[in-house]
Design a protein that fits this description.
It is built from 4 helices and 6 strands. By secondary structure, it is an alpha+beta fold. The protein has a 6-stranded mixed sheet. It is globular, with a radius of gyration of 16 Å. The relative contact order is 0.19.
């Protein structure tokens, strides 16, 4: 009988943040990606002038698996307008099972106490 490999090498998941002037259509207005920290993302988000908003501003999380192409990345907006949508990310196993993502969501909730938390 042949041996089955049980020690599959797990690939590293890299989490970064995104900020969009328009969460619905990231190509409208400012869009920033590859942001290393939540603090940097919040700073960029807060600097978008409200008078030229093209849509609902958002902060998102991007997950990249090392060794894969960027097109395969997973991205979800967490803070969008007046809401923090944790229900949506709980539907995505790669997000709800990632401790880094869960910590970032907790931090976003703490940083934006005026936003409504959506958890369905």
């Amino acid at each position: 009988m042949g041996k089955t490999a049980t020690n599959k090498e797990e690939k590293k998941v890299i989490m970064t943040f995104t900020v969009a002037e328009c969460g619905e259509y990231h190509s409208l207005g400012e869009y920033h990606e590859g942001i290393a920290t939540l603090a940097e993302a919040v700073e960029i988000y807060q600097q978008i002038p409200s008078e030229r908003m093209n849509g609902v501003p958002s902060i998102g999380i991007n997950l990249h698996v090392e060794g894969t192409v960027k097109m395969e990345d997973l991205q979800a907006d967490i803070l969008s307008g007046s809401e923090i949508d944790i229900g949506f990310i709980n539907l995505m196993p790669e997000f709800c099972g990632n401790p880094q993502v869960q910590e970032a969501v907790r931090e976003i909730i703490e940083l934006f106490p005026d936003k409504e938390v959506i958890d369905y």
